TrEMBL record:
Record has Glycoprotein as a keyword: yes
Record-stated family: Belongs to the GILT family.
Signal peptide segment: 1-30
Coiled coil: none
Source organism phylogeny: Eukaryota, Viridiplantae, Streptophyta, Embryophyta, Tracheophyta
Protein name: Gamma-interferon-inducible lysosomal thiol reductase
InterPro entries in alphabetical order: Interferon-induced_GILT (IPR004911), Thioredoxin-like_sf (IPR036249)
Pfam families xref list: GILT
Length: 264
């Protein structure tokens, strides 16, 4: 018996389709490529540091508004200039209330790993710090419609303390060591006193195929970090805490995240 002859055009068509498919990036691969292109951005801070709170509220929150967040892998480390004693207890630069809020914010990161969620909560708390109303920090649960239980249980028990010890280890492992807060690190590079120019460093470090549009209007960092002249926005070793507001400085906050109306 003679087998039926296959159409001659079938194999070339299959080869063409396979070749075309090979040229098309798979959605998963494309997503992995974009994720790999993201620039690491780390903020080492403490909750009652006035420069930290103003940086977070007036500057850092802006990356959620201008689209730069799509190019960033942001990590918050709420510990700052605290110290761990020989008995494992933690003392904070601005006193016990700062230790409390550091732990609260660490617990929020743990309870809500989604950056959009825990950043909004921490932003709400730090906005109250700027306004000198930080003792009302727990009002942020209701404002954002968040269940307080996971954070409350965390900071009241050993879990919160362990989270702070973890952040202590991360902060103490910095190379070079942090010298003040806020301490901003972009793509492994500490920005020293030029931290307010962090967006320009992110755009310079971004290796993706489609840079965020905001990068088009940013000038590359104008000088080497080693020669940056010290600015005022740095907490070295302030003793007491006087939390200046944006209004005290004669200017309005540059960034306002979309919190519920009763926050205004």
């Amino acid at each position: 018996m003679i087998a039926p002859r296959r159409p001659r055009f079938l194999l070339p068509v299959v080869l063409v389709l396979l070749a075309a498919g090979a040229l098309l990036p798979l959605p998963a691969a494309a997503a992995e490529e974009e994720a790999a292109a993201k620039v690491s951005l780390e903020l080492y801070y403490e909750s009652l540091c006035p420069f930290c709170s103003r940086f977070m509220v007036n500057r850092l929150a802006g990356i959620f508004e201008d689209g730069l967040i799509e190019a960033v892998d942001l990590r918050l480390v709420p510990y700052g200039n605290a110290r761990v004693g020989s008995n494992g207890d933690i003392s904070c630069q601005h006193g016990p209330y700062e230790c409390l809020l550091n732990t609260v914010e660490a617990c929020a990161i743990d309870a809500w790993p989604d950056l959009d969620v825990h950043f909004r909560f921490i932003y709400c708390v730090e906005d109250l710090v700027v306004k000198r109303q930080y003792k009302s920090w727990d009002s942020c649960f209701q404002k954002l419609g968040l269940d307080p239980k996971p954070v409350t249980e965390c900071y009241k028990n050993e879990k919160g303390h362990k989270l702070e010890l973890k952040y202590a280890n991360q902060t103490d492992a910095l190379v070079p060591p942090h010298r003040y807060v806020p301490w901003v690190v972009v793509d492994g590079q500490p920005l020293l006193e030029d931290y307010e120019n962090f967006e320009a460093y992110i755009c310079k470090a971004y290796k993706g195929t489609s840079p965020p549009k905001v990068c088009e209007g940013l000038v590359h960092p104008p000088m080497a970090l080693e020669t940056v002249v010290a600015r005022n926005g740095v907490t070295y070793n302030s003793g007491g805490i006087k939390l200046a507001t944006a209004e005290d400085e004669g200017r309005d906050s540059k960034i306002k995240m979309r919190l519920p109306d009763d926050d205004n």
